[in-house]
Amino acid sequence: MFWNTLATASRAPRSTGRRREAIAIGQRVEGWTLEAETDGAWKKLAEGTTIGVRRVLRFAPVTASKVRLRITGARACPAIGEVALFQSAPLP
What we know:
This protein is mainly β. The chain has strands at 2-7, 14-21, 29-38, 41-48, 55-62, 66-74, 80-86. Strands 1-6-3-4 form a four-stranded antiparallel β-sheet, with no helix packed on it. Strands 5-2-7 form a three-stranded antiparallel β-sheet, with no helix packed on it.
């Protein structure tokens, strides 16, 4: 299993996550979990299988000091090109 933990620049709430693989060297990720550290504990925000060129998912707004992308399955060493969190307008 591989993971990358990132400190957030601000404590603003976020409700959308975007991940990208460095697809020029091939799609490698087969399973992932996106987590946020809130109140000293890790909370799962989203999980899935492949990431590919771009994977965008919405989740309940969360304010976190850190976020973590855990790769739970991969064909080869993962090559993550981007991990981003931002606040989106509420869904209708």
